[in-house]
Design goal:
The chain is mostly beta strands. The protein is built from four helices and 18 strands. The protein folds into two domains: 45 residues, no CATH class; 228 residues, Immunoglobulin-like, CATH 2.60.40. It is elongated and about 85 Å long.
């Protein structure tokens, strides 16, 4: 019956089941032929003694961890070449980053993303071309919540090449840069879980985690940002001062990092989809602390080229 489903045409919808007054069960199968099949042996089915099956929140999280672990294993560690060049930031993604290594990633077709990067003596250049039905909407009232209140571009980086590649949590040198629409103004926010300067320390909370501190959360005033909207998406291009990232680029330097895009709901009030180039453990969109966390072990490799 598995090989002869019911229904007609290219998709096998349809079929029926009938239970007779005398307790017999019949089902329909077949395709171009209609088979009336009696299901027998049900009288031997007995209920098993035992407790009810209980699935706890911890069980759900464990199942999610297994699923995302398998997804991450299939991806492995992707590699991206970051060339030394000085692109013009005009909002024309293809033209501005012509010759750069362009990566593509998606969880669904209407939220596909392209990204590129480059560097020179002063800046790290980053670009995102994001498909989005309701582009560039974000309801954040404060810069530190751009990552969880709608559309935003995301870049995560380990600036210390000596850090353990398999680290599960962020360490000194690890950073997250989120660029979003803050009350009509393109704004870049830099998050550091561990930082020397803790004067901009902020503590985040959620239903699961009561206190999650970030040593430093700052708005990058020196970042140059260009945003261009269109009907089905938007482009974000940024020139970020190397000094702000504590980054010292050099030919051949290999760093861990990741690109992502955050998609908001149609009303632009909340983040409902997180899509990343390498990190597959990004399905959670209903817990703001877990959405904030960095996972360097799931980042790809960024290789600086001359």
């Amino acid at each position: 019956m598995d090989n002869c489903p019911c229904g007609m045409g290219g998709e096998d919808f349809g079929g029926s089941a009938a239970y007779t007054k005398d307790g017999r069960l019949f089902v329909q199968a077949g395709k171009t032929g209609f088979w009336n099949i009696e299901v027998v042996g049900l009288e031997t089915v007995k209920a098993m003694k035992g407790e009810k099956l209980r699935i706890s929140d911890a069980d759900v999280k464990k199942a999610e961890a297994i699923r995302y672990g398998q997804l991450q294993a299939t991806v492995g560690t992707r590699k991206m070449a970051v060339k030394k060049m000085t692109p013009a930031l005009t909002g024309d993604f293809q033209k501005d980053f012509q010759g750069a290594d362009i990566i593509q990633f998606k969880k669904q077709d209407d939220a596909a993303v392209r990204s590129a990067a480059a560097w020179d003596a002063e800046f790290l250049y980053l670009a995102w071309d994001v498909r989005d039905k309701t582009p560039w909407q974000n309801a954040a009232g404060l810069a530190e919540f751009l990552y969880c209140k709608g559309d935003a571009a995301d870049f995560q980086l380990g600036a210390d090449p000596k850090a353990d590649k398999n680290r599960g949590e962020a360490v000194a040198g690890d950073l997250r840069l989120v660029i979003g629409n803050l009350k009509g103004t393109p704004t870049a926010v830099l998050f550091r879980k561990v930082a020397r300067d803790k004067k901009n320390r902020k503590v985040f909370s959620s239903g699961v985690v009561k206190e999650y501190p970030m040593d430093s959360v700052t708005v990058l005033e020196g970042a140059k940002i260009e945003v261009k909207k269109r009907g089905d998406g938007y482009v974000v291009e940024a020139a970020v001062p190397l000094a702000a990232l504590d980054l010292k680029p050099a030919d051949g330097l290999t760093l861990r990092g990741d690109f992502g895009a955050l998609h908001g709901d149609p009303g632009g009030q909340d983040t409902v989809l997180r899509t990343y180039w390498n990190n597959q453990h990004t399905g959670i969109v209903n817990d703001e602390v877990f959405e904030l966390m960095m996972e360097p072990k799931n980042w790809g490799e960024l290789i600086l080229k001359p």
